[in-house]
Design goal:
The protein is mainly alpha-helical. It is 72% helix and 0% strand. The protein has 25 helices and no strands. It has helices at 25-34, 36-51, 55-61, 63-71, 83-110, 112-131, 136-164, 170-174, 176-195, 202-208, 211-223, 228-233, 237-248, 254-267, 273-276, 283-298, 301-314, 319-347, 349-374, 383-401, 404-415, 418-450, 453-472, 484-488, 494-497. The longest helix has 33 residues, at 418-450. The radius of gyration is 23 Å and the shape is globular.
Length: 523
């Protein structure tokens, strides 16, 4: 484990201005294929909500919910309140949580590709079990295997994208994961809309088609190059340099290569990354690894995406109308992520997170007011107000899609030093899946208990996270991933928390100590 003797290891000098390279076909291709992992994640988010609103699926696996839904006498907010039904959705994320922790040593010791392949194979097994399910146990087992795939895929893919991308384009390329996720959600909504009338096996087709992106992810993991950071960390230094030259499109990669080598020197002194990440010098990254994914889920977005058809049916929309509305929200989410990719490396992370948070708060409050005034436990929502609710929910999804959606993954994946990067990403994924599991399991009961207040509940959390970003998150735009550790020592709050660790080449970690002018230190 790293001790005081390694203070001079790691990246010692800012070399960002010396980085060479451009967007190459190799980077574009690898990032596109790797991001398919996000498509599977999104597909599984989107498919579960549509399938759980299909009568044939409910009648086979959840007959109590089926009879309650069609009896007409149940409180509108409570029609789908069933822990077994919630477990169908949430079991995937609990399995993913456990798998993400197992994936960390695999990713570090065997490379990012190994975890991507493990994730793809698990997805294929899960999809096969779901499409062939004859009872609830088989259905849940399939969801658990899909969860294992998500644990490995979500651990490795964002890291892979961050390490392959040039520093000045990292934000946009890293968002390929979220773009693929939103595309997966949109595709799942379209498929549900098309399969709802295929009787009696439409739901099987919806669940089984998860095998398509899973196969692409598995094949991609086999044929993609490993990241230079991972190769260097595992002692394959010359091979790492060759890959770096190929993906940057130039042989002049000395500055970036030196940063990677220095980072790997420190990484190789760390025997226990999870223990190391708890040290005070890693406190800022640890806080972000916990708070960013937790806040992303506490926006309430997954409740809308999981249960969009269920939610809209609870508001009085017919079966077709509710699935159509969920297709619309999926399309909005996909489109807004494209917007984010285009502006994140120009405007930065903080501006998008704060402005998106404000818009989401306003939207949640408006929906709560409409439902509170015009929609009750036993009455339907008038058409004009139904349209208004869908429009406002789309505006909420729009704000999430260009802020917390992609950046909830991008920021944690780009802030960790190499020695704790795989452990940090595992924590990020585990926290995300823990909160996803909790919200997925509890949402139907919360909707029944809180009624329209559920939207105010999420609005309160969005307020907290917006303030958190304003106060505690420094701007990471354009900062090379291996020099990110230097950023925290400039932040007004985190420099007080981190211990004094003098670095070489004039860098001082003591509070208030500025770097010499020769290092082009920017405040």
């Amino acid at each position: 484990m790293a001790g005081g003797g390694v203070a001079a290891l790691g990246v010692k000098t800012e070399r960002a201005a010396q980085y060479k390279g451009r967007m190459t076909l190799a980077v574009a291709t690898t990032c596109l294929v790797a991001a398919v992992g996000g498509a599977i994640f999104g597909y599984d988010i989107g498919i579960s909500g549509g399938v759980t609103s299909m009568d044939l699926f409910l009648e086979k696996f959840f007959p109590v919910v089926f009879h309650r839904k069609n009896s007409g006498g149940k409180n509108n907010y409570c029609k789908y309140d069933n822990q077994g039904l919630a477990a169908f959705t949430s079991s995937l994320y609990l399995a993913g949580l456990v798998a993400s922790l197992v994936a960390s040593p695999v990713t570090r010791n065997y490379g990012r590709k190994a975890s991507i392949v493990c994730g793809g194979v698990s997805f294929l097994i899960g999809a096969a079990l779901n499409v062939a399910a004859v009872n609830l146990a088989m259905l849940i087992l399939g969801r658990i295997m899909l969860g294992v795939g998500i644990g490995f895929g979500n651990q490795a893919v964002p890291l892979y994208l961050s390490e392959m991308a040039p520093a000045h384009l990292r934000g946009g390329l890293n968002m390929m994961f979220q773009l693929a996720t939103t595309l997966g959600i949109f595709t799942a909504n379209l498929i549900n809309y098309g399969t709802q009338n295929i009787k009696p096996w439409g739901w099987r087709l919806s669940l089984g088609l998860a095998a398509v992106p899973a196969l692409l992810m598995t094949l991609g993991g086999l044929f993609l190059p490993e990241t230079p950071n991972s190769l260097i960390e595992r002692g394959r230094v010359e091979e790492g340099r060759r890959v770096l030259e190929r993906i940057r499109g130039t042989a002049d990669v000395d500055a970036e290569f030196t940063d990677m080598v220095e980072a790997s020197e420190l990484a190789n002194t760390v025997e226990h990354p999870f223990r190391n990440i708890l040290q005070p010098r890693n406190r800022p990254q640890l806080v972000m690894a916990v708070c960013m994914p937790a806040f992303q889920i506490l926006t309430g977005i997954n409740s809308i995406l999981f249960y969009a058809p269920v939610l809209f049916q609870s508001m009085g929309f017919g079966g077709n109308a509710s699935l159509y509305s969920s297709v619309l929200t999926g399309a909005v989410l996909f489109s807004s992520t494209l917007i984010s990719i285009g502006i994140v490396d120009r405007l930065g992370r903080r501006k998008l997170l704060i402005s998106g948070g404000i818009q989401m708060i306003v939207c949640q409050v408006i929906v709560a007011v409409i439902l509170g005034v015009k929609f009750g436990a036993e009455k339907q929502l008038a058409r004009s107000y139904s349209v208004a609710v869908v429009v406002v929910i789309c505006l909420f999804v729009l704000a999430f899609g260009w802020s917390w959606g992609p950046l909830g993954w991008t920021v944690p994946s780009e802030i960790f030093p190499l020695e704790t990067r795989s452990a940090g990403q595992s924590i990020t994924v585990a926290v995300n899946l823990l909160f996803t599991f909790a919200i997925a399991q509890a949402f139907l009961s919360l909707l029944c208990a809180f009624k329209f207040g559920i939207f105010l509940f999420f609005a309160g959390w969005i307020t907290v996270m917006t303030v958190f970003v304003y106060v505690f998150l420094p701007e990471t735009k354009g900062v090379p991933i291996e020099e990110m550790v230097l950023l925290w020592r400039k932040h007004w709050f985190w420099k007080k928390v981190m211990p004094d660790m003098p670095l070489e080449d004039g860098w001082g970690a003591a509070e208030g100590h500025a770097a010499p002018a020769s290092n082009n230190h920017k405040g």
